[in-house]
Specification:
9 helices; globular; five-stranded parallel beta sheet; Rossmann fold; alpha/beta
């Protein structure tokens, strides 16, 4: 499994990695306060070690991809953090957004996607944007399987947690 991860990482290192909502939220919560990861209901499934794995992984990819839909979801979820982490997270968010390559796909176009009724706007925008261009990092099993079925290279973060990657 590690060899498969490394092969994908090498192939997409210069192209970029698209980070799904929960993983991006883990990044922001962990950067603000690693101890908060296990205490915030949207990141409680993760550990400080997961956050450190994510940092190591992201350091491998100079080009990080996102969409307005992903950023909006992260913003809405981070808004549920208590203070002072909420304000700190928004400050970090504000300073970090410019470091991402953000691509906008028109919602009316994404809504025509084959899986829209089942997967919705954010996930279908990920599929449309990543197809043959970017590696996707997600912890969403349903999305992971759908991406795989659509021929989109993806890594399930939970597999990295189990098998490691380096």
């Amino acid at each position: 499994m590690k060899e498969q991860f490394q092969s994908l990482f090498n192939h997409y290192q210069q192209k970029g990695i698209l980070i799904d909502t929960n993983i991006l939220l883990l990044y922001f919560v962990g950067t603000v306060n690693p101890a908060r990861i296990s205490k915030f209901n949207r990141t409680e499934q993760f550990t400080i070690e997961d956050y450190q794995t994510l940092l190591e992984l992201l350091s491998y990819f100079p080009k990080r991809i996102t969409t307005p839909n992903i950023l909006t979801e992260v913003n809405s979820l981070a808004d549920k953090l208590g203070e002072p982490e909420r304000s700190q997270c928004f400050a970090l968010f504000s300073n970090t957004i410019p470091l991402f390559n953000e691509f906008h796909l028109e919602s009316h176009t994404v809504a025509k996607s084959q899986g829209f009724v089942k997967f919705g706007l954010t996930d279908c925008s990920i599929v449309e944007l990543a197809r043959s261009q970017y590696l996707v990092l997600t912890d969403d099993l349903k999305l992971f399987v759908y991406l795989q079925n659509q021929g989109v290279n993806t890594i399930n973060f939970n597999h990295l947690r189990i098998y490691g990657w380096s």
